[in-house]
TrEMBL record:
The lineage of its organism: Bacteria, Bacillati, Bacillota, Bacilli, Lactobacillales. It comes from Liquorilactobacillus oeni DSM 19972. GO terms for cellular component: bacterial nucleoid. Keywords: DNA damage, DNA recombination, DNA repair. The keyword Cell inner membrane does not apply. Gene3D superfamilies: Nucleic acid-binding proteins, Recombination protein O, C-terminal domain, Recombination protein O, zinc-binding domain. GO terms for biological process: DNA recombination; double-strand break repair. Residues 7-82 form the DNA replication/recombination mediator RecO N-terminal domain. Belongs to the RecO family. Signal peptide: none annotated. It comes from the Bacteria. This is DNA repair protein RecO.
Amino acid sequence: MGTTRMAEFKGIVMFRRDYRERDMLVKILTDHYGFKMFFIRGARKRGFKMGASILPFTTAIYTGTINDEGLSFIDAAKDVSQYQKICQDILLNAYATYILGLVSAAFGDARALGRWYPKTVAALGAIDRGLDAGVVTNIVELQLLANFGVKPNLKRCVICGQTQGEFDFSESYGGLLCRKHWSVDTNRMHLDKRTVYFIRFLSSVDLLRLNSISLKEETKQKLRYVLDQIYNNDVGLNLKPKHFLDEMLKGSQNILNSHFGIDK
Ligand SMILES: [Zn+2]
């Protein structure tokens, strides 16, 4: 078991909760040490100096003591800034919370994230800049699959290796089927061209260079469906933030329907 004193690290505050009478536990995703739980003494006392740096969806450069096991500690923070839109918009907040939950589920508490730290920062930054949160979330979901041990072949037909033409997605074959081989899986997803195109595209797009993205509502709903299937059936994750997000999406759909007088 190791301890690193005077460690300087970047971090994103994931959540916090009250602890004892005056203290708090704050979970932070750090660049070098992965997800860590920090004990913040006196965080609930009036006049606590580091208050702004331990708010959810805050990023900062922290100095403190990192313990491999058990709680870690923060002594100071600088360059504190907050994802403003994510903090103000409950739906964006739900997406961002789900993304952090996914990354946390993929890496656990004891592992450094490597390139997934900048990728996570980029995903939250993109949402905060106003890019479509649903699509950004799909990118994270697609690109994290390998970390969950699910590696669908999205490059070529899993039977014959064909890379061009029409494809569908098969869960049981773990990837794409070309038109010639659709017959091998009657339970294939029956996706349209556009959805397959975006599954392939988003699975390899560089989150760090994502400047704009625009998908039809119908395509977005299909992507949501495909990823729900894969995550429910193949990954087998059951995350609270995902349930919350689903409820939010259902709610906003109902509001839209009643607003525009659309009946189901
Ligand atoms: Zn084929």
